[in-house]
UniProtKB/TrEMBL annotation:
Residues 27-104 form the DUF7344 domain. It holds the Pfam family DUF7344. This is DUF7344 domain-containing protein. InterPro entries: DUF7344. It comes from Haloarchaeobius amylolyticus.
Length: 123
């Protein structure tokens, strides 16, 4: 799922762009850390910031063939808190409680999940 390997479902991407500004969707899915967050939220819709940082750091290390250092996790946690989670909240994909440092609700559009290839088979 790294940047160079991401191959979105183009039909689903087009459907997502019908509901949101195209540039927002491209920016959103163009960042590998944001994609990791969206996939993680599909499996666990109400994680804490710390849990998300762990998942994103581990996924990033796995995808890049490296070992995540504590400094990598700290950098990702800051990026999540100040950039990724606010952007997802602005789009209405999540509710993020910055005081509790937790995602409290997730409403990721099906077209975005489809583009990422994480759609539930029973839908």
């Amino acid at each position: 799922m790294g940047d160079e390997q991401f191959d979105p479902n183009l039909r689903a991407l087009h459907a997502a762009a019908d509901d949101f500004p195209f540039d927002d969707i491209v920016r959103l899915l163009g960042d590998r850390h944001t994609r990791y967050v969206l996939v993680s939220l599909h499996d666990d819709p109400t994680p804490t910031l710390e849990e998300l940082a762990d998942v994103v750091a581990a996924t990033d290390a796995s995808e890049t063939g490296t070992i995540a250092a504590p400094s990598d996790r700290d950098r990702i946690r800051l990026w999540l808190y100040h950039a990724i989670l606010p952007r997802l909240a602005d789009l209405g994909f999540i509710a993020f409680d910055s005081d509790a440092k937790a995602v409290t609700d997730t409403d990721i559009p099906a077209a975005v999940s489809d583009a990422l290839g994480v759609t539930d088979p029973e839908r």
